[in-house]
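Researcher: I'd like a structural prediction for the single chain below. Treat it as a standalone chain; there are no partners to consider.
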Amino acid sequence: KGADLIAARFHRGLVDTIAELAINLAGTHDLDTVCLGGGSFQNSLLLAGIQDNLSASGLTVLTPGSIPANDSGLSFGQELITAANSEQAS
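Model: Treating it as a single chain, here is the predicted structure.
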């Protein structure tokens, strides 16, 4: 049971810290929308906790849908940018 408690506290600490940073940055840059992406957000505890904290602070939260929040999603985004740049160049 000790390991479960340590893991829960670890995740809660990450959730609170990341959400606080995002809320502060959004305020500093006058943003009302935050996008959560990257492999860390495949962790459902982190995703749900951070999303809840950000939403409770009044921010709109965007999360990955059909494109995964990992290197596959990053690769897809890079391909989209390359395609858009190629079209602009021609």
